Amino acid sequence: MSLLTVDNLKIYYATPRGHVKAVDGVSFDVREGEVFGIAGESGCGKSTLVHSLILRKPPMVHMGGKAIFKGMDLMTMDERESRRIRYTELSIIPQYAMNALNPTKKIKDIVWDLAREHGHTDRGELEKLLRERLAMVKLSPKVADMYPVELSGGMRQRATMVVSTLLNPDLLIADEVTSALDVTTQRVVIELLHHFMEVGIVKSIIFVTHDLALLDKIADRVMILYAGKVAEIGPTEEIISSPAHPYTRLLLDSLPKMGVQYRRQKLKGIPGYPVSLLNPPKGCRFYTRCPNVMDRCGELEPKLVEVGPGHYAACHLLGGENQ
Ligand SMILES: Nc1ncnc2c1ncn2[C@@H]1O[C@H](COP(=O)(O)OP(=O)(O)OP(=O)(O)O)[C@@H](O)[C@H]1O
């Protein structure tokens, strides 16, 4: 069953030079019980996409499309309703989670403020829950009485994870939560996210990262974004073992291989630069960098074609409707 269905979503930024088309007709769904990964290079629209589901503030503008979450359209929901579901049904661990907590308040006061806003009245119960959850992420109960500045970066990260999930949201969005961490801490964070799902604290997770190798470890399905559009989407194993889009293949080739020294690896960077989202080119947005470019690529926008069960890619090489 789908928890979230995003249909042809367009989220732009209004700038003096025109609209930056950061998310430009993106569709996908997130099912109950799955980790859904979103990957792509810096600037492809990952953060814009997930933040637009939570809160849209200028210069971000919703230009079209829907995001149906548990029967409600997040795009047209009023502010009161969106505040009501925040933390209790839909929650985000932001990209800069280490600095996301209010520095002037103790952790226990931060959680009390947000729990009270959602109708909680028993502070003792809430603090008991906080201590249990702190223990779950291997933090001492004393952390409840500390200010965020008294915690190390890694501890603050875990405290933010506790705050974001304390009220058991159905869908948790983790936006680049591991990018500032060393490999060991990354593993701990990923294990914790899995644990949150296993014990039913959250039902589903959207995990955003520029690192496809990480998604191999955590995600059931993956969506690859390129310049505000879906390049490929499907089961993680399929995408990693049989990538159908030239961009996905290049992303995979750019990952370092285990057990081979850097100087012996031929790491292929992706040639060229991402296109401007102010004036994206006609046709496929990847054609300026694509090793398999054909004439029609600069003319016609490729549609998503099914290349395997539940596995779709948008590339003229794949034929189908695009021929
Ligand atoms: N406030 C803004 N005003 C104008 N353009 C913006 C704004 N914020 C982001 N953009 C542009 O929107 C596009 C998508 O940015 P976004 O941050 O969503 O990408 P991303 O894939 O999450 O990248 P990163 O991993 O670096 O955060 C980029 O071209 C970016 O320059």
TrEMBL record:
Keywords: ATP-binding, Nucleotide-binding, Transport. The keyword Nucleotide-binding applies. It comes from Thermococcus indicus. GO terms for molecular function: ATP binding; ATP hydrolysis activity. SUPFAM superfamilies: P-loop containing nucleoside triphosphate hydrolases (SSF52540). Coiled coil: none annotated. The keyword ATP-binding applies. It holds the Pfam family ABC_tran. PROSITE patterns: ABC_TRANSPORTER_1, ABC_TRANSPORTER_2. GO terms for biological process: peptide transport. This is ABC transporter ATP-binding protein. Residues 4-252 form the ABC transporter domain.
